[in-house]
Specification:
Helix content: 10-25%
Order of helices and strands: HEEEHEEEEEE
Number of domains: 1
Distance between the termini: 65 Å
Radius of gyration: 18 Å
Largest sheet: 5 strands, mixed
Number of helices: 2
């Protein structure tokens, strides 16, 4: 039995460790006595210098996982806010309506991923960042957006501003 509990603890630790190297944890707030936390990560857009997004998400504790029986999955809830943190320099970005994914992190052992997509709104001269969860068999309706206006700020387009 002890070997099984050690195995479960190792698997849970691996399943909950999902923050890629370009995300930096900047805050962690405990929300209850069993050790559940809300984590805030700072994510810099790899193709847009001068924009930083902060994503908040729920991180389940080992105690909560054992109590609930759903060991390998975190909730889909997340929130995002993006701000200009320096001179904006836009490299090669997708300009279509689908935009492109700029960040992803596992939220379960296999099937669920937290993703951040960037969409360029040419008509309103803004960058839209969408945080959502992608699931294999059923998408989640839980999402959050943040908009970084490009009006009134000096923006450099390395590939030339789209017309």
């Amino acid at each position: 039995m002890r070997k099984f509990l050690v195995f479960v603890a190792v698997v849970l630790a691996a399943a909950t460790w999902f923050v890629p190297s370009h995300a930096e944890e900047v805050g962690r707030v405990g929300v209850d006595w069993v050790g559940n936390d809300i984590v805030i990560d700072a994510i810099e857009d790899p193709a847009v210098a001068g924009v930083t997004c902060h994503v908040a998400f729920f991180d389940r504790s080992l105690i909560d996982r054992l109590q609930q029986g759903n060991w390998f999955e975190d909730p889909s809830n997340s929130s995002i806010d993006c701000v200009q943190t320096g001179p904006i320099v836009i490299g090669r970005i997708a300009l279509d309506r689908d935009g492109e994914e700029v960040f992803q992190a596992k939220r379960s052992l296999i099937l669920k991923t937290l993703a951040v997509n960037r969409i360029y709104d040419k008509d309103h001269n803004a960058l839209i960042y969408l945080a959502h969860t992608r699931e294999l068999n059923q998408g989640s309706a839980k999402m959050s957006i943040s908009v970084v206006p490009l009006v009134g700020t000096d923006v450099t387009w390395t590939e030339g501003k789209p017309e």
